[in-house]
Structure formats: C-alpha cells, structure tokens
Design brief:
With about 500 residues, the protein is of the alpha/beta class. It has eleven helices and 26 strands. Helix 3 (about 130-140) crosses helix 4 (about 150-155), helix 3 runs parallel beside helix 5 and helix 6 crosses helix 8. The protein starts with a strand and ends with a strand. It binds alpha-L-arabinofuranose (AHR). Alpha-L-arabinofuranose binds near residues 70, 71, 172, 213 and 347.
C-alpha cells in the first residue's frame, strides 16, 4: 500500500501551546504515595520524592500537571493538606474508597512540580464545597501577604506565593459518580460565582469549566451549551475527557477510536462557537483536553479491591504496543486542532493509567505509551501544519473510511525543523509514503524514529522493561523535494527534517 502527503508552510492550523503536553497527578492509588513520593525509598530526596521517578518525568518534558483530582477533588478539604505534616488528618476518600493520609498537599506538590520544571494546574472542589473555599484556596496560594490565608501559607514555610495560573472549576460534575454531582444549571451557576470570586482575588488566572466527562454522556453537548451559557465571559477553557479501550480485542476498530476523538473535539468547538454567536461575544473559547488516555486493562482487578486501604494498587493499566499506537493517534487528533485545544493532560502520570510505573521500594520503568507522549512533547513544539493526505482506507466495526495513515506535522521556524508524526494502522502491511516537502529546500532527514513490535500485545514490565522501545529507522530518503519513507505495519513514527 501507498500513501501521499503534501506539506506546506502556509497551511497553518495554529500555534501549538506547550501545555498540550501536560499530564495529571491525582490522589488515587499509587500516583502520589508510592509513585512520585515514597520517603523510605533508597532514591528518595530530602522531601521524600523519588528521584528516579523525577528523572523519568523530566525525560517527558511535562509543562503542566493537573492536581489533586479528578474525582478525588470533589470531596477534598484542601486545608487538610497544609501545615505541619504530623498534625494532618486521615480522611476517608469517598471517590476511590481509600484512606487519604494527607502527607502530601498543595505546598509539597508545588515544590515537587518545581523539581520537574512544570506548572501546576489546580482544581477546586465544587462537589462538597463552593465559591468560599475556592476563594480561600486561591488567596492561600496566590496572594503575596498581609491577609489571613496568605500569611498562613507563609507561616507554613512558603514565603513566596505559588502563583498557580490555571485552575479547574471542579471535576466531571455531570457524572452521577461524582461527589456532589450537579445538573448543568446547578453547576453553571456555582461555576460562574466561583469564577468571579477567584478572578477578583487574582485577575491573572485562567479558568477551566467542566465540560462533559465523555462524549458518550447522555447530556453531552446540552451540558456544554448550558454551562457555557452561565460562564462564557468568566472562563477561558471548557474541559474534555476521554478514555478508550479494546475490550472486544478488535485492533483495527480500537485504532480507529481517535476518529471519535476528532468528532468530539469538533463538536465541542461547534458548541462553544454557538454560544459565542448567541452572546455576540468577541471571545473565543479554548479547549482543555485535561483527561485522555487508554483505560480498560485494570477494570477487572479494581472490582476485587479491598476498601479503605492507603495507596492501593488501583487503576494500574499495563499498556501494550497497540495502546501506544492509539495514544499516538490521540496526540495527532489534538494537534489537528491545535488552534483550539490549548491544554492537554495525559491521564495520568505515574502508576495510575500512566506512562511511568514504579515498584514499591523498587525500580521504575517506562510503559509503551511513554514513547509517543515523549516524542510529541519534545519534538511537537512550534506550529501545527495541515497536511493534505491521500491514504488507503478501511472500515471497522464502528468506523468507516478509517485512514491507514494518521499524521500531524509540526514546523518549528526558530530551529528550522519539520517533524512528521505518523501512525500506520495497517495490521498486516508496511506503508510506503511520499511526502511533498518541496518548500523545505536544503533540509535533510535528521532521523526516523520507529516504535513497533511484532506482537501488538507486547508490554513493558518490571521483569522486562525494555521490550517495547523506539528504534532508529534508516529508510527515509529526501530527493528532489520529496520524502520517500516506509512506515512498518502497526507503527508509530517520528520523522525529523532539518
Ligand atoms: O483519571 C481517573 C479518573 O477518571 C478521574 O478521577 C476522573 O475525573 C475520571 O473519571
């Protein structure tokens, strides 16, 4: 099979916000305790954070990390997590049926984020709490000094304000599983009143309103419209969340699921723009895809989980080669709308549906999905260009006309590099691709990175952590303004020209 692409410098979709490559740490399972933080571990630093994990996260160049939830935030009293650690209260976490020790809270997390060089994307509790507590929290975090909450922070050893810039107004408030679940009107009203107070405390912040917790929710689209009707002029982003799985073991259909993500993004943009029209607003609403990933492997194990333990091994998906391909396709899906999707958070970062795994008191390693995420984060900075693609297509159980070739192009003018991210969805055959890059005279192929494996179910584990790793492909050739390359069957590819 053969495919063709045309790449043109003028076909600009939009500037890629580096925050598209964000991630997420929730107080759930072993994400915090036993993940980023394990004081007894031989590699722990003076604050108890695991240096091996920090080093792996640095490889990913994560610009922003959402915290502290997720479902957890909807029952969280942030005051429980500040002040002397010895005095902190243990609480039942009703979201995950676990015990929260509160050893790590807002200040420790801010210090950790600093170590990995990331911004914090804070979430406030709009489940059991409301505008007043959100106002107190932002005053504690962002106000310099001279008031009760800001001086309390200083007395806790954090003289300088954290200045968290991006804040989520609750989490998945449309879901019945959410602590303090609300109707769209109830949430919209609470969100706008919270937004007002928070921006009065710190007008420099940006706010994310909760969209639907997935495109499959019965209230999807109507929820977005109603919430934005209440909040449009007071918030900056609406959130999107999605997780895909391959429960029926149908790889061709599974790999096509990013088409659902494409449609989801387009539908939310359309709903935002409808509200812009209705309000005669000059403002363009942006999208925060602040939870996305593959999630299904751990579902059965989680049903057996004992309740009320500390940091149980919960939602720990062990990812396969094919999962890495879908993750690559999902990144491409966001790059295709880089003009509107400004924040993305791979959910999550360590142990819990994560690119990085740890053994308690043991090693840490990279899952298969680590690689497409890392490549995109490192090489996917610049502007997203819209390629014209002619690709063979196939039909699967749920999707028609699925292109075998999925691709996004990133041009970085400053470093004069052109990066082609490409997935070959074909289960059986390599794909020959011709890319017209005649505007990029003088460029040469810097490298062609390939992630593939003869077994689509291959995984990286504690005993075999390097089974799926990228390799260097030698076959790409640039001749007379045309790149000739071959993408192996079921592969993720990064072709860098410069
Ligand atoms: O990321 C895991 C969970 O998925 C989050 O807590 C919740 O927001 C979503 O349902």
């Amino acid at each position: 099979p053969k495919a063709k692409m045309i790449v043109d410098k003028e076909f600009v979709i939009g500037a890629i916000d580096p925050r598209l490559y964000g991630s997420f740490i929730e107080h759930v399972g072993r994400a915090v305790y036993g993940g980023i933080y394990e004081p007894g571990h031989p590699d722990a630093d003076e604050q108890g954070f695991r240096k091996d994990v920090t080093a792996l996260i640095k490889e990913l160049s994560v610009p922003i990390v959402r915290y502290p939830g997720g479902n957890f935030v909807s029952g969280y009293n942030w005051e429980d997590g500040v002040g002397p650690v010895a005095e902190r209260k243990r609480r039942l976490d009703l979201a995950w049926a676990a015990v929260e020790t509160n050893e790590v809270g807002t200040n420790e997390f801010a210090a950790w984020a600093n170590k990995i060089g990331a911004e914090v994307m804070m979430a406030v509790n709009l489940g059991t709490r409301g505008p007043a507590e959100a106002r107190d929290l932002i005053e504690y975090c962002n106000h310099p000094k001279g008031t009760y909450w800001s001086d309390l922070r200083r007395s806790h050893g954090y003289e300088a304000p954290h200045n968290f810039k991006v804040w989520c107004l609750g989490n998945e408030m449309d879901g019945t599983w959410q602590i303090g679940h609300k109707t769209a009107d109830e949430y919209g009203r609470t969100a706008v009143e919270t937004a007002k107070l928070m921006k009065w405390v710190d007008p420099t912040i940006e706010l994310v309103a909760c969209g639907s917790s997935s495109r499959g929710m019965p209230t999807f689209a109507e929820w977005e419209a109603t919430v934005l009707d209440h909040t449009y002029e007071h918030v900056d982003y609406i959130s999107l969340h999605t997780y895909y799985g391959n429960r029926s073991n149908d790889t061709a259909n599974f790999l096509a699921k990013s088409l659902d993500m494409d449609d989801y993004i387009h539908s939310v943009i359309a709903t935002c723009d409808y509200m812009k029209a209705k309000k005669r607003s000059k403002k363009q609403m942006m999208l925060s895809f602040d939870e996305w990933n593959v999630w299904y492997h751990s579902a059965a194990a989680d049903k057996q989980l004992e309740r009320w333990t500390i940091a149980p091994a919960q939602i720990e998906d062990i990812y396969t080669m094919e999962d890495a391909l879908l993750v690559g396709c999902m990144i491409i899906s966001m790059l295709k709308r880089a003009d509107r999707v400004k924040i993305g958070c791979l959910a999550q970062l360590v142990n819990v549906i994560a690119p990085i795994m740890t053994a308690n008191n043991g090693a840490s390693w990279r899952q298969t999905i680590f690689y497409p995420y890392m490549h995109a984060s490192i090489y996917g900075r610049g502007v997203s260009l819209k390629p014209v693609i002619r690709s063979p297509k196939y039909d699967s159980k749920e999707y028609t006309d699925v292109p075998t070739l999925e691709s996004a192009i990133v041009f970085n003018e400053e470093s004069e590099t052109l990066t082609i991210f490409a997935v070959n969805r074909d289960l059986a055959d390599d794909l020959d691709v011709e890319v017209d890059v005649r505007q990029f005279a003088g460029y040469r192929v810097v490298e062609h990175i390939i992630l593939d494996n003869p077994d689509p179910k291959a995984r990286n584990t504690l005993s075999d952590p390097l089974r799926v790793t990228p390799r260097s492909g030698g076959g790409s050739e640039l001749k007379d303004g045309c790149l000739h390359t071959r993408l192996p069957k079921l592969s993720w590819n990064v072709i860098r020209l410069g």
